[in-house]
């Protein structure tokens, strides 16, 4: 049974990014599977499947994934040197690196906007087909513009709160550490009744 805290978790900004990405991924899977079945059994593949996948599905999934990964702090991090810094230094290093990443994202957004406008002006299509392909170009400035704001927020948060939002270097390692913590917690819970029983036994022996 879910509690109010769990229900409020559904209304976080990341859901607005992750849900469309999941929907597009599922749609792509159905589309590609249907195309393969039609081509194999009816010799009549769905038109422009490759172009739609290349120019529409994959860019949407990739760029929404960039934003979601930053929101969850799950971008890959090479922190071998970073972890050796004192805690007081980490926050400033993290803030500076976040600002640098924000500037890079701003540059990509600026360049991507020019390319998207140019693609719209020439009416860019997908290869030799007539499939319209210029709208996904606007995902580049949109995605990197959002990430520019995310990195600025991460820089400000690093100064104020320190390293509490440090990125995940390997999600598999995090899951393993969580499992180990849970196993240790269960082991401690099993020891407590045994130790309590032992103490009561000692008290009874002393009373005799």
Describe the structure.
The protein has 208 residues and is mainly α. The protein is flat. It has six helices and no strands. The longest helix is centred in the last third of the chain and has 37 residues, at 171-207. 74% of the residues lie in helices and 0% in strands. The protein has helices spanning 4-9, 13-41, 49-72, 87-121, 139-161, 171-207.
Specify the helix fraction band: over 70%
Number of helices: 6
Strand elements, count: 0
Give helix and strand order, one letter per element, not per position.
HHHHHH
Strand proportion: under 5%
Largest sheet, in brief, is: none
- Cα distance, first to last residue? 49 Å
> What global shape is seen?
flat
* Global Rg: 26 Å
Whole-number mean pLDDT: 82
